[in-house]
Design goal:
Elements: H1 2-19, H2 21-49
Helix pairs in contact: 1-2
Length: 50
Amino acid sequence: MKKALIILLIAFVVYFLLAEPEGMAAIFTSIGSWFADLFNAIITFFTELF
């Protein structure tokens, strides 16, 4: 069951990439922005701590 869901998720990502490349790029941009914000928050926390 778990393997089937992973295959289905991969198939959806490939389809979405081929059908809507701009949408996929926006999703990756959002994810990257979220990680950048998280990293900046951690840096700010440790800077203020010391």
